[in-house]
Amino acid sequence: MVDVHSKAIRSKNMRAIATRDTAIEKRLSGLLSDSGFAFRVQDASLAGRPDFVIDEYRCVIFAHGCFWHHHDCYLFKVPATRTDFWLEKIGKNVQRDKRDIQLLLNEGWRVLLVWECSLRGREKLSDSALCERLEEWVCSGGNHAQIDTQGIHALNESGRQAPPA
């Protein structure tokens, strides 16, 4: 399938994609503030530059876009044009995420991934459900977890969903 935009227009569109203060980060920031958490944003001194750092609980939170970080959900679609290029690029993002998360865990940080699909779209969680999950995880002491449209799930060392306790 041929791209519907010229190379110049496609390049302009891709450059316009924000790397900070995205809609999902703003929503998550509001939810964390509403829950009373004091946090820092985009700490470049930590691996992966976490979107949110809650020092009091020694935890970091990443707001992951489902496309850019290859989440297995309805928001991720394999591009029809330049498929090999995009799959390689997204694959490198996934590998970098795994490396950065492992570095953070090794340094004693707790890591939470909040997927875009839980924050926006037809299957998003309500604000109250998201706040409950955030508070549950931040205050619980779990090391590594994710929030998606199905709620919160503990993750094991390899980033796979851990079996229920």
How would you characterize the overall build of this protein?
With 165 residues, the chain is of the alpha/beta class. Helices cover 38% and strands 16% of the residues. A six-stranded mixed beta sheet has the order 1-2-3-4-5-6, with helices on both faces. The longest helix is centred in the middle third of the chain and has 24 residues, at 83-106. The model has no long low-confidence stretch (mean pLDDT 87).
Task: Summarize the model shown.
Helix content is 38%, strand content 16%.
The radius of gyration is 16 Å
Low-pLDDT regions: none
Rounded average pLDDT? 87
Structural class label: alpha/beta
Number of helices: 5
Specify the overall morphology: globular
Name the features.
alpha/beta, six-stranded mixed beta sheet
Task: Show the helix and strand layout.
Elements: H1 7-15, H2 23-34, E1 40-41, E2 52-54, E3 59-64, H3 83-106, E4 110-115, H4 116-119, H5 127-140, E5 144-148, E6 151-154
Parallel strand pairs: 3-4, 4-5
Antiparallel strand pairs: 1-2, 2-3, 5-6
